[in-house]
Amino acid sequence: MTADVDEEPPGRPSPPPARPEGPDPPPAPGALARAADRVRALLRDNTWVLALMILANLVVILGAGALWYALGGDVTVVGVTAGALLAFAGAMLPLIRGRGQHGDGQHGDGEDGDGQRGDGQDGDGQPLWPPLILAVTPVAVLLVGLPALGVKTYLESRPVDLTNDLSLKLDGPVEDRDVVTASAHADRAKSRLTVTFTVTEFDPASPVCAPASTLTVTPHSRGARITPQTRPSDETFTFDLGADRKDIRLTVAVRAERNCRLNLSVDSARLD
Known about the structure:
Order of helices and strands: HHHHEEEEEEE
Oligomer: single chain
Distance between the termini: 109 Å
Structural class: alpha+beta
Shape: elongated
Helix content: 25-40%
Strand content: 25-35%
Largest sheet: 7 strands, antiparallel
């Protein structure tokens, strides 16, 4: 007696099941698209969340631009701020339009009769990039601005070394009652000057000249009265300039024994 149905030979794999006819199902949205869709739905359905997001964007963008420009940023900061505001405005328009369409029960143009989604859009035809820009723009500004502000603050807190920049206007050795001008230009402005001058013997055969000499140092600063200081050579002078200064100008008056000739130089100088 023979079987009505042919049996598969043993060890031979079964053929794959037949593929159903019809168009392929749309791919599952990625994590970024799902996050953008959730943010878009939240902004569309909650007016206070949208208002809070608008306020956060304006405060972060305008505040960061104004702060960076006030701290010495160039005009390109204005261009970056304007670009961020344009991106913010471009993201706002589709969101506001989507809120009106959602309230009226209308559908956008991104969904056709078969329920297919257009490029960069979800099922109701609204693009996904506006909520992403609205959420990413202030975060990007903070991620770039806060480290830059921290680095700038750290660099500005460090003292400015002027030891090699403070030049003395002299033609040779100095004697009693000579006045020497010292000047320097700093890259960063500071308000506290610390300077030390070194006095050595011009004639090694006169070893008593340098220890008995004194220096009177007077800073010249516009708008601030600074009392001159008189100290023995090799001692440190500290002056409060009254405001942040980049241009430093000092006069150094020498008092020494008669017929003493001395070498005057800068041992150290810095702005704090």
